[in-house]
Amino acid sequence: MNKSRGRVSAISVAVLLSLGCACFGATYDWTGSADLNWNNPSNWRVTGSIYSWTWPNDEFETRRVNQDCDEINIANGDAVTRLGELVIRGATDGSNEAVLTIDKSSDLSGLSNMWIGRDMNRGRVEVRNRSSLSMSGNLSIAYNSAVGALSIVDGALHVGGNVNVGQSGNGTCSIKNSVVEVGSWVYLGSSPDALGELYVQNGTLRILQHLSVGHGGNGTMEVQGGLVELGAGKLLMVGRHGSGVGTLVLRSGTVSAPNVWIGLLGQTIGTVEIKGGTLNISGRLTVARECVSAAMRISAGQVNVGSDFQMNFIEPGGVSYGSGELRMDGGVVNVTGVSYLNYGGGLDSQAIFTLNGGTWKSGGDIRLGWTPNGGSVCLTINGGTMVSGGTIVVGMPGAGESRIFLNGGLLQGEDLLIDSLIVYRGGELRINKSFVGEAAMQALITAGKINVPAQYQITTIDNYTVLRRSGI
Questions:
Q1: pTM of the model as a whole
Q2: What is the mean pLDDT of the segment spanning 208-224?
Q3: CA separation for the pair 406, 348 (Å, rounded)
Q4: pLDDT for residue 122
């Protein structure tokens, strides 16, 4: 629902901006004839204007560029200085788009804050061909029902403060073969009905603080090559705050973050898709943290988690609802600590984990239904490998329904504790015989803790007690 709401907003704004008078179409070309000061009219050549303005901010001599600005070009290799704030936006009635282009090894610096698209008007900035843009404060793309876009190709961007893409409008930022450094937060979609999109292709994005995808609005981030890196101890959040809807797609390249939360608080919805590349997490990976819904889908690539993996994590006294889902069709996941499936969830919470292919390795336990509050868990293994360096724990007293459906593939652990049920139909269940021998495995079957078909066998292979179909 939230995603469609964002799309309706985009269409509405586009229709609104198409109304009004025709574009003025003035072009402001930087010449640098006098010095490197943006505010010096002698440095500009103006064509196509019906007014007598001589530089981009001449209309009111404020932060907003003239309403007749169609194109503003800096393309002669100069390092131009513009002090204070700068708003790149079209005509007052929203009838055209103002475009600032920084090209051919040129630079624009000295700014405090910058807006690209503001107050129901359109704006666009293009930085390309070894050029750069820098500011000490914040960068907002699409503010107050506006449409804004920033494209950086073979260039650089430095922002000392926050970057807000789709702050309260529809904003897009694309980074290709470029280096971008942000001194504080990056927000994608920061208010209801806002849409923020970020695309990284073979570039480098370094964020010293947090990254929030779907921060109360609709946010999308896609990485195809390159590096996205967060500062020490910071968070990558996908779906955060209010009714935010966040989506992160990793196709190739590397994303590195201390902690990753998919779905955080309230009515948020978060989705992460790993289709290639590497997701490095030095701390914890959490799917559904006191939110409505969160999902992670892995088809290729690798995920490395330095601490624990948690589904449906609930803080003491937190809201105990929500649904966490993980589907793995390929790739490799390495969890250094414990893998928790439903960690503290309440009666209405559920964790659904489906392994169809690939390898999931947990250095510590794999614990299903680690909650005394009645939350449910369903782990289905149709193929692939799931290995625990500790104990496989299925349910606990007071927990809801915890089930493992082993239909194929391999499930292996050093010990096995079952308070609920394992339904075995295929594949192999392997447990270290030092803790669960053949007689103990049979006892679990006899007690109804493991449901088996008529044809099964228990044997010992490489010091592991193995439950499998007979005739293999």
A1: 0.91
A2: 97
A3: 25
A4: 95
